[in-house]
Amino acid sequence: MRELVFELLLRLIKPIAALAVGALVWLVASTVGGATASAELAILSWLAGAAFILLASDGPI
Questions:
Q1: Model-level pTM?
Q2: 57, 25 in Cβ contact below 8 A?
Q3: Is a pLDDT exceeding 90 seen at residue 9?
């Protein structure tokens, strides 16, 4: 059972990191960038965070 919990935690690290990066992108875009805080901006920010996490972990080369 302990291995299952560790496996779930390992699989949740990337989505949580993407959420954190996406929240930072959303915050910067809605305050400094002047974009309207909307659900579309939140989803696009989360996707940008996910793309960053994938590129940072795998590397583009």
A1: 0.77
A2: no
A3: no
How do the domains of the chain map onto residue ranges? 2-58
In total, the chain counts a number of residues equal to 61
For 24-43, letters b (16+ CB in 10 Å) and e give ebbeebbeeeeeeeeeebbe
Query: Could you tell me the two tokens for 31?
Result: 């305050």
Residue 43: closest CA among 16, 58, 22: 22
- CB neighbour list of residue 25: distance below 8 Å, 6 or more residues apart: 45, 48, 49
